[in-house]
Amino acid sequence: MRIAITGGPGVGKTTLIDELARLGYPIVRESAREVIRERLARGEPPRPDPEAFAREILRRDIEKYRDSTSLAGPVFFDRTAVEAIAMLHEAVAIDDRERDRLLSTYRFHACVFVLPPWREIYVTDAERDQPFDGADAVHRLTLDWYGKAGYSIASVPLAPPHARAEFVLRALALD
Do the Cβ atoms of 17 and 27 come closer than 8 Å? Predict the structure, then answer.
């Protein structure tokens, strides 16, 4: 079972993923941060043009999706190919048939866990340079795309990491 943990930037996704890992669950890290970190290490701007950025994230997300078949039990993903598909579609408006094929091929658990914007915990860093105001727009876009792809949305409460992990595990009947 592949489970999506998602939301806009700086809402606590990685902290929640780390808490789930601490509890012994397998996790898959976000691809966008990897791309940004690698580009900065090479002295390049953090992001290439939107299409190239989306294509690289999608390539990595597909690879991680395929690699996750070897992991036992539920696997928690810090963002997913669904968002990379959305990014690519926003950048170049991919063909509807290709979009639908990708969305149906890289499926996740029917319930997606979305962390809402939370100004009090929002911080920027070397890989997250967007202002908080952009987090709400990404949140709305995320809800829209997962909804269009047929997922139900579980809004994760604003709470400490352990309480958020308990919420997710209870919702999945894994506690």
Answer: yes
